[in-house]
C-alpha cells in the first residue's frame, strides 16, 4: 500500500472514530453491510484503492486473522479465537444446510450451541474452544458469544448456567437418574437401565439439559452422599427412598460399568479385605501389583457372569495412594514383602530401603542360565530376547525374566567395554558361552 493510501485510510478511520459514539456489538441493520459505521467508512476508503492494493490488503488481513495469537493480549487472543471458531462453524453449518432440498436462502440457519459442539467434536483438528469456555470468556450465555462474533442470535441462547453450593437432596439425585433412564428410552437403547456413572454425568453436562429447570448432579459427590452411584441407581429406579434408609456414606464408587474403579471413601479395613480376597483367589499365593490387578478384574468379571450385583473393589492405585508402595501394602495386610521396606510410624505409609530392584541379581542370572540351557552355544542377545518373547515375563521355573533395559540399567556402569549384557552373561553362564561348539 502506498504512503498516500495509508494516510488516507488512517485519516478516514480517525475521523469516523471521533464522530462515532460508544457502539454495542450487534449485527448490521437491514440494508447495511456492517454493524459499525467506522467499518463502513473504512470500506468506502478501501474501495477507492487500486484492485492490486485491495488484494494486498486482503492478504495481510487473512494472515492476521488466521493466527489468533497475533491479536495482542490474553483477552484479545481469546476473543479472536472465539470469533474465528464461531464464524468457521457457522460457515460449515450453512454449507451443510444449503445442500438440503428444502433450503431457504432468505433465512439462513442460526448457529446453536448444540450444533457448534457437534461440529467441534467432529473437527477436533481445528482446535476450536468448547462452548462453555467461550461463554466464560464473555461472561454470559450463548447469544452473548454470537453477538460478540456479530452473528445472528438463536432462541434459548440467553440462558446463563450457574451452579449452587447447596447440597443435592435425595429427590434431585433420584429424579436425575430416572430422567436419564427416560432419555435412554427415547433414544431407543435396548436396555435403558444399563448405564454407568460417566454416562449420566456427561448427559447432565449437555447444553440442552443444563437449560432445563432444576439441578442434576455433574460430579461424584452427590451420589456419594447417598451410598454411592450403584446404590442410588438401584434404589431410584426401584422407586424407593434413600438406600436402605441408612445414613449417607461415601463408598467411593465412580462407575457402574463392567469394571468399577477405585474411589476416595474406602476404609483401611476394606482395603485389607480386598488384598486378602485376592490372596484367597490365588490359592494363598501373595500377588505382585500386576497380579493383583489381573486377579481383581477376573473376580469382577466372574461375579458379573454369575449375575451377582456389582460392588466396589479397590484397585492397585488406591492401595498405593494409601500405603505408598506395594511392599508396604503387603506389610499392612500381614503378608511378607518382596523387598525390604519400613513403615513410617506417624503416617503408617511405606518408606523404601535400598535400591529399587524389582528383580534380584540371583533371579536375573538364573533367567539367563535357563535361556542358555534351552538354546546352548553360541548364546547371543537375540537368542535371549526371543526366549523372553516366547515365554513372557516368567521363565519355566517361575522366575521373572529381566528385560534388556533392566540389564542395561543395572550393569552399565560396571560393564566396561564388554557391555551390560555380556557382563551379565560372563557372571551367570559358563566360560565360552558366546563361542560355538567345536
Which key features would you list for this structure?
two-stranded antiparallel sheet; extended; 4 domains; mainly alpha; 20 helices
Architecture blueprint of SSEs:
Blueprint: H1 3-19, H2 37-47, H3 51-66, H4 74-98, H5 113-122, H6 131-138, H7 142-148, H8 170-186, H9 197-204, H10 207-210, H11 221-224, H12 229-238, H13 268-281, H14 289-305, H15 316-323, H16 326-332, E1 341-343, E2 350-352, H17 361-375, H18 381-391, H19 404-411, H20 420-428
Antiparallel strand pairs: 1-2
Overview of the molecule:
The chain has 438 residues and is mainly α. The chain folds into 4 domains: 3-111 and 134-148, no CATH class; 170-245, no CATH class; 268-352, no CATH class; 361-428, no CATH class. The protein has helices spanning 3-19, 37-47, 51-66, 74-98, 113-122, 131-138, 142-148, 170-186, 197-204, 207-210, 221-224, 229-238, 268-281, 289-305, 316-323, 326-332, 361-375, 381-391, 404-411, 420-428, and strands at 341-343, 350-352. Helix 4 crosses helix 5 (113-122), helix 6 (131-138) packs across helix 7 and helix 19 (404-411) crosses helix 20 (420-428).
Amino acid at each position: 500500500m502506498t504512503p498516500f493510501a495509508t494516510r488516507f485510510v488512517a485519516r478516514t478511520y480517525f475521523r469516523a472514530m471521533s464522530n462515532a459514539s460508544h457502539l454495542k456489538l450487534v449485527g448490521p441493520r437491514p440494508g447495511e453491510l456492517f454493524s459499525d459505521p467506522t467499518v463502513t467508512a473504512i470500506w468506502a476508503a478501501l474501495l477507492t484503492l487500486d484492485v492490486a492494493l485491495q488484494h494486498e490488503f486482503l492478504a495481510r488481513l487473512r494472515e492476521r486473522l488466521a493466527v489468533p495469537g497475533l491479536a495482542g493480549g490474553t483477552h484479545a487472543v481469546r476473543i479472536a479465537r472465539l470469533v474465528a471458531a464461531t464464524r468457521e462453524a457457522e460457515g460449515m453449518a450453512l454449507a451443510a444446510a444449503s445442500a438440503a432440498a428444502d433450503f431457504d436462502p432468505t433465512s439462513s440457519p442460526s448457529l446453536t450451541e448444540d450444533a457448534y459442539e457437534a461440529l467441534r467434536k467432529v473437527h477436533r483438528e481445528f482446535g476450536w474452544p468448547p462452548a462453555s469456555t467461550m461463554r466464560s470468556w464473555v461472561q454470559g450465555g450463548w447469544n452473548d458469544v454470537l453477538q460478540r462474533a456479530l452473528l445472528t442470535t438463536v432462541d434459548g441462547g440467553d440462558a446463563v448456567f450457574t451452579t449452587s453450593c447447596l447440597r443435592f437432596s435425595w429427590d434431585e439425585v433420584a429424579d436425575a437418574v430416572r430422567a436419564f433412564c427416560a432419555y435412554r428410552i427415547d433414544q431407543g437403547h435396548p436396555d435403558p437401565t444399563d448405564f454407568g456413572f460417566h454416562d449420566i454425568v456427561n448427559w447432565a453436562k449437555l447444553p440442552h439439559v443444563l437449560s432445563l429447570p432444576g439441578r442434576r448432579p455433574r460430579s461424584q459427590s452427590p451420589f456419594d452422599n447417598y451410598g454411592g452411584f450403584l446404590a442410588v441407581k438401584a434404589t431410584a429406579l426401584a422407586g424407593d427412598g434413600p438406600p436402605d434408609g441408612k445414613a449417607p456414606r461415601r463408598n467411593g464408587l465412580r462407575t457402574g460399568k463392567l469394571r468399577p474403579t477405585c474411589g476416595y471413601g474406602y476404609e483401611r479395613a476394606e482395603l485389607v479385605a480386598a488384598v486378602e480376597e485376592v490372596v484367597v483367589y490365588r490359592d494363598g499365593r501373595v500377588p505382585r501389583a500386576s497380579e493383583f490387578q489381573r486377579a481383581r478384574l477376573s473376580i469382577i468379571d466372574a461375579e458379573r457372569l454369575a449375575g451377582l450385583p456389582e460392588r466396589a473393589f479397590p484397585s492397585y492405585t488406591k492401595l498405593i495412594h494409601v500405603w505408598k508402595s506395594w511392599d508396604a501394602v503387603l506389610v499392612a495386610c500381614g503378608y511378607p514383602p518382596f523387598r525390604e521396606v519400613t513403615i513410617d510410624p506417624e503416617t503408617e505409609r511405606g518408606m523404601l530401603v535400598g535400591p529399587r530392584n524389582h528383580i534380584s541379581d540371583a533371579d536375573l542370572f538364573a533367567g539367563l542360565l535357563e535361556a542358555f540351557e534351552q538354546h546352548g552355544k553360541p548364546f547371543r542377545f537375540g537368542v535371549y530376547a526371543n526366549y523372553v518373547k516366547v515365554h513372557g515375563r516368567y521363565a519355566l521355573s517361575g522366575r521373572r525374566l529381566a528385560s534388556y533395559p533392566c540389564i542395561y540399567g543395572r550393569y552399565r556402569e560396571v560393564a566396561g567395554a564388554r557391555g551390560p549384557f555380556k557382563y551379565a552373561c560372563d557372571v551367570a553362564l559358563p566360560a565360552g558361552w558366546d563361542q560355538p561348539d567345536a
